[in-house]
Design goal:
heterodimer; A: mainly alpha; 11 helices; globular; B: alpha/beta; 7-stranded mixed sheet
């Protein structure tokens, strides 16, 4: 675990040392700010964060791969990944460390959005339950997206390719519930279960369903497992 | 000198057998076979899942793919063997087994969590927790039901109800195991869809059973679980709202279905088509108004109420009864006295309208669109007419001084005759006579909503919602809804709208309404501007500024 923390710390420092994380964070905040304001612009506006939660999840399609594309792709390009893999650390410690670093950036960015919550409390009386469930949901959603972005980064040494592959997979998983409405029968159910967004609606409304929590955790764990396997396969491929 | 070495000739061996030759050839295309087989298996599998109609064909494709894969494996047996048993092969196999194991465990976990899902409603008022009755109704839906919610998305005043309806319908759909589905339609963008579903007023949610095609419209606001659940019971035929027709006083006959007759058979049929159950009600026989009475219709009585009947009716109305009174000029006094308790006065005489009436018959006033007053019952109406009508009014005291009207009673006039109309007691003369006749315009229909009769204080001065509200619609004519005139102009709509409006308050199922706390943001224009600009620029600019510093230091 010490190794994981050390890797996470190193990656976090590296995030703060390059402008990329800041730029991505600034764009995220600009978009959430825009959607927050438009949701309270109409007459009889309600004091909730629902207005920006859903657009934010869609923005994760691009945001998460942009944040994670560097993590493995760059190391592969520079050849430092071989060093890391031969060092006395386990593969899963490497994967987890890098994942935790990106998760830290996500948490930091979401913490800044608490400014909107502060405004809601200042000018209204928001229902606390849906606020908490909304943040829990977006954190789980974000971790699943980051895991997928990390996996894409482990597939290639080209950061741009990693970002495109990551965004592509996330886009497909985001739009799966739209596709579920077009097809019928079992396929519709399968697509609905795969869809990242279909599991998010409840959190946004203020309902925590254990199935949705388990879904995001399983996606995160499964994709991190795939990443670890992918790294391991480099030894014998 | 160049030396040439002659390669020794291979001794002529036996010619390879046909099987070996074929296997050799297959081995050369083994990878192609493998790829083709894999492609067919994946394609066939996808076809099997997505296109149920082509399943036999898809199965064939999958089998062909498996066949090709087996053929490829047999042909390239040595290669496959070394790939599996060699170091690389063993490691690949290990990886595949581990992958399969982890995938199975995670899928199992997902399945278990799906089957045993627990939901925690974090909203303060437990907005998304459906009542057990609703969940039962949804689980036991005998046929698929679809709801179409008609809202105009651009209308800010509908936004709150739209959100609430969406949340509620979402929860209904989730609990119904796919038997209940819903969609939102903009009636202004798709007027044909609204017409097709019989919607002329919106916001509204139309529930439709997919097999029986029974339909029920819930007008919004309010958005309540009770209304939606009742709608499900109605369209699936599980329960119906019952409309009782008072009998025993020579009222209009609901069993008379003769065309051009004075009966109410067509009106009764209209109600049945609107998913109501129709029942006659003799008060002296039944001894009470049944509890399941959504609306009581009193259509043109000619004889007085008995004292016991009057008491039963009075008590039922006081307890939140909903009744439609269609009364003609010669209505018996006991009925008039009953309505007077709610401050309604049935005028003496007949209405004569020289401004707007059926040609040659000034005693049949015709009411045009402009003559209706604003109410849910009359808003969608076009022309209606009222043969031999009597005026419906409120107590003269209240007209002279509205401050005398008790605050627990509300009146809404529905229909008014033209300014060139009057009330006369003369049965022949159709000319206005000063001093003898009362000049118009005359109100022909009235809605009363009251917490108690005008001469009794309401029992509990608590908020209105908690008290039974008496709703009465009085129309000074019953001829307009008889078989003879029922289908003329929009007479039938007036009758059905009045019953629908009265029945709206009657719930088939009792679900305690949840307190809805609307958490509005209260801010001035300047405060909004502060929120706007700080949200747009403050945070992104601060983070972008940090990016600039980092970039600068890097440089």
């Amino acid at each position: 675990m010490r190794n994981t923390v050390a890797i996470a710390w190193k990656e976090t420092k590296s995030y703060f040392g390059s402008p990329m994380a800041y730029v991505v964070g600034a764009v995220f905040l600009a978009l959430t700010g825009y959607f927050f304001v438009s949701s309270i612009s109409r007459p009889f506006a309600e004091a909730t964060i629902r207005g920006w939660l859903l657009p934010a999840t869609f923005f994760f399609v691009f945001w998460a791969p942009a944040l994670t594309m560097r993590l493995f792709a760059e190391e592969q390009k520079l050849g430092t990944l071989e060093l890391l893999l031969t060092a006395p650390v386990r593969d899963w410690e490497v994967v987890l460390g890098k994942f935790l670093a990106s998760l830290g950036i996500l948490v930091g960015t979401l913490a800044l959005t608490l400014y909107y919550v502060l405004l809601l409390f200042w000018f209204g009386d928001p229902d606390v339950g849906p606020l908490l469930s909304g943040y829990l949901g977006i954190l789980l959603y974000g971790s699943a997206c980051l895991a997928i972005g990390l996996f894409a980064s482990s597939l290639t040494s080209n950061q741009i390719v990693a970002a495109i592959v990551g965004s592509g997979v996330l886009l497909l998983m985001t739009l799966a519930d739209q596709a579920a409405q077009i097809v019928g029968g079992i396929a519709s159910r399968v697509l609905e279960q795969i869809s990242l967004t279909a599991h998010f609606d409840d959190f946004a409304r203020g309902v925590i369903d254990t199935h949705n929590v388990v879904y995001y955790l399983l996606v995160t764990v499964f994709v991190l497992f795939l990443t670890e396997r992918n790294l391991d396969s480099r030894r014998w491929r | 000198m160049a030396r040439t070495t002659a390669r020794p000739k291979a001794p002529p061996g036996p010619a390879p057998s046909l099987v070996r030759r074929v296997l050799g050839w297959l081995a050369s295309i083994a990878s192609l076979l493998g790829a083709l087989g894999g492609g067919l298996v994946v394609g066939g599998g996808a076809l099997y899942i997505w296109v149920p109609d082509l399943r036999p064909f898809a199965l064939g494709v999958v089998l062909a793919g498996v066949g090709l894969l087996v053929l490829g494996a047999v042909a390239a047996f040595p290669a496959v063997k070394s790939a599996v048993t060699g170091r690389r092969g063993r490691l690949t196999l290990n990886a595949l087994v581990l992958f399969a194991l982890v995938t199975t465990i995670l899928a199992l976990l997902g399945f278990i969590s799906f089957r045993n899902a627990q939901r925690v409603d974090t909203t303060a008022t437990k907005q998304f927790t459906l009542a057990p009755q609703t969940i039962k109704v949804l689980r036991e839906l005998p046929e698929p039901v679809r709801a179409v919610a008609f809202f105009v998305p651009t209308r800010a005043d509908q936004a709150r109800d739209r959100q609430r309806a969406d949340d509620l319908l979402f929860e209904f759909a989730r609990r119904s195991d796919k038997k209940f589905t819903y969609q939102f339609v903009d009636p202004e963008a798709e007027p044909s869809k609204a017409r097709q579903m019989g919607v002329n007023q919106y916001p509204a949610v139309v529930f439709e059973a997919q097999e029986s095609k029974r339909r029920h419209t819930v007008l919004i606001p309010p958005v309540t679980e009770q209304d939606f659940t009742s709608a499900l019971l109605i369209v699936t035929g599980t329960q119906q709202k019952v409309v009782y027709f008072l009998t025993g006083h020579n009222e209009r006959d609901i069993t008379d279905v003769q065309e051009n007759s004075q009966g109410f058979g067509f009106a009764a049929r209209g109600l049945i088509n609107d998913n109501y159950r129709i029942q006659p009600l003799n008060l002296s026989q039944a001894g009470r108004v049944p509890e399941d009475a959504a609306v009581l219709v009193v259509a043109g009585p000619k004889r007085d109420l008995l004292e016991t009947e009057r008491d039963i009716l009075l008590n039922w109305l006081k307890g939140g009864g909903r009744a439609l009174f269609l009364l003609d000029p010669d209505t018996p006094q006991t009925f008039k006295d009953l309505l007077r308790r709610w401050g309604v006065v049935l005028g003496e005489g007949t209405v004569v309208d020289q401004g707007s009436s059926v040609t040659g018959d000034p005693r049949t006033p015709v009411v045009q669109r402009v003559q209706y007053l604003d109410h849910t019952i009359t808003n969608p109406l076009d022309v209606t007419f009222y043969p031999l009508a009597t005026p419906v009014d409120i107590l003269a005291d209240y007209k002279r001084d509205p401050r005398k009207k008790p605050p627990w009673v509300d009146y809404t006039p529905l229909v008014s005759t033209s300014p060139r109309s009057w009330v006369t007691t003369d049965k022949e003369r159709n000319e206005f006579l000063e001093g003898k006749d009362t000049p118009g315009p005359v109100v022909l229909g009235l809605v009363v909503e009251a917490l108690a009769p005008v001469d009794e204080e309401p029992q509990r001065p608590s908020p209105r919602e908690e008290q039974p509200m008496t709703s009465i619609v009085v129309v000074g004519d019953s001829d307009f809804a008889t078989n003879k005139y029922y289908y003329a102009y929009t007479n039938s709509d007036l009758f059905l709208n009045a019953v629908n409006w009265l029945a709206k308050d009657y719930a088939l199922i009792s679900i305690r309404p949840k307190p809805v706390a609307f958490r509005e943001l209260v801010m001035t224009r300047r405060e909004f501007n502060f929120i706007r600009y700080s949200s747009w620029f403050l945070l992104p600019a601060a983070v972008a500024f940090l990016a600039l510093i980092v970039w600068w230091r890097h440089r």
